[in-house]
Write a structure and sequence with these properties.
By secondary structure, this protein is mostly beta strands. About 15% of the residues lie in helices and about 45% in strands.
C-alpha cells in the first residue's frame, strides 16, 4: 500500500485532471450535434432543389418539350417545334427571364427556380408574286401581297377590250383552277406563289354576203379578225350592175357607202354586212340625121335602156 502521504498526493492529482475530461466530452457532444444539424440542413436543401417546377404551354400551333415537369439539375434544355405553316416567335411568361435565350426555339433553363413559360407561334406569311406574262390585261391583288397557308387568297386576271384570258402559268399547282381568270390559292399551300396571267387577242368573225342584186363579196364569210386588224372588205358588181351600199353592222365600217372599205380598228365584236347591187340604167340618145320628119328645133328621141329592158322617151 502507498504511504498515506503518497495516497493523498495521488488523490489530489486525479481530482485536478477530471475537469479536463468533462470539457472534452462536452466538446465532442456539441460537435456531434452540429454534424447532425448540418446534415439536416443539407438534406433539406437537396429536397428543396428537387421541388422546382417547370410549367410549359403553347400559344398558336406547335409543340414543346420536355413539357411540364419538376427538375433539380441545371442547365435544362427546352424546345419549341412549330406545326406546318407556323413559325416560332419567342418564349413568353414570367419565367422567360430564367432562360438563356428567350428568342431561340431551343434554349436552356439556367436559373434554379419555379419557371412558367409559353412558346409563342404565329402563322408564316407567304408572298404572292403576280404579273401579266403575255397580252394586254391586268391582275390583282398587287404583287407582294402576303397570305397564310389557310387564307385561300383570291386572285384575278382582267383582259383589256379585244383580249381574252387564256390561263395562268407558273406555280399553277398552288391554284384551285389554273384555267379560270378568277381563282384562289389552295388553302394547304405552304410556300410562296408566283403566277403569270396570259391573254390573247379575241378572234371576231365576219359574216358577209350579197343581199340584193348580182355581184360578189370578199373576203369569204367566216373570216376572222382582231379588234385592231382593220380588215378590208369589198363588193364587186357583175356586169350591168352597180353597188349601192352596205347594210347590216354598218357602224363597224369605215365607209358603208364604198364598195371597198375596212372594218374599224376599234371594233370589239363580230360583224355582219350585206352588199347591195342594182341594175345600171344606161341612156340611148338617137336622132334623125336625114329624112322628112318635122321636129321642133332641138327635138330628139331618147331610149332609156337598162340591162335586160328598154323604153322610149320623147324629148
Amino acid at each position: 500500500m502507498l504511504p498515506e502521504k503518497d495516497f493523498k498526493k495521488a488523490e489530489s492529482t486525479n481530482t485536478f485532471k477530471r475537469p479536463n475530461l468533462r470539457r472534452k466530452r462536452s466538446f465532442l457532444a456539441v460537435l456531434a450535434w452540429l454534424s447532425l444539424l448540418l446534415a439536416s440542413l443539407c438534406g433539406a436543401g437537396i429536397e428543396d432543389a428537387g421541388a422546382y417546377t417547370l410549367t410549359m404551354s403553347v400559344s398558336g400551333s406547335g409543340n414543346v418539350s420536355p413539357g411540364s415537369m419538376t427538375f433539380s439539375d441545371l442547365p435544362l434544355t427546352i424546345t419549341a417545334t412549330p406545326d406546318t405553316g407556323w413559325e416560332f416567335l419567342m418564349w413568353a411568361g414570367s419565367g422567360a427571364s430564367n432562360l438563356a435565350n428567350a428568342s431561340a426555339y431551343e434554349t436552356t433553363l439556367v436559373l434554379a427556380a419555379n419557371t412558367t413559360v409559353t412558346a409563342i407561334f404565329e402563322k408564316i406569311d407567304y408572298t404572292l408574286a403576280i404579273d401579266v406574262a403575255s397580252g394586254n390585261g391586268s391582275v390583282s391583288p398587287a404583287s407582294g401581297t402576303s397570305y397564310n397557308y389557310d387564307t385561300g387568297l383570291g386572285i384575278s386576271a382582267t383582259a383589256d377590250a379585244g383580249w381574252e384570258f387564256t390561263g395562268w402559268t407558273g406555280d399553277t399547282g398552288n391554284l384551285a383552277n389554273p384555267g379560270a381568270a378568277t381563282t384562289t390559292i389552295n388553302s394547304d399551300t405552304f410556300g410562296n406563289t408566283t403566277v403569270h396571267a396570259n391573254f390573247v387577242k379575241i378572234d371576231y368573225t365576219l359574216t358577209i354576203d350579197v343581199a340584193t342584186g348580182n355581184g360578189s363579196v370578199s373576203p369569204a364569210s367566216g373570216t376572222s379578225y382582231n379588234y385592231d386588224t382593220g380588215l378590208g372588205i369589198s363588193a364587186t358588181a357583175d356586169a350591168g350592175w352597180e353597188f349601192t351600199g352596205w347594210t347590216g353592222d354598218t357602224g363597224n365600217l369605215a365607209n358603208p357607202g364604198a364598195a371597198t372599205t375596212t372594218i374599224n380598228s376599234d371594233t370589239f365584236g363580230n360583224t355582219t354586212v350585206h352588199a347591195n347591187f342594182v341594175k345600171i340604167d344606161y341612156t340611148l340618145t338617137i336622132d334623125v340625121a336625114h329624112g322628112q320628119r318635122q321636129r321642133r328645133p332641138g327635138q330628139r328621141d331618147e331610149l332609156q335602156l337598162r340591162y335586160g329592158s328598154w323604153d322610149q322617151r320623147n324629148g
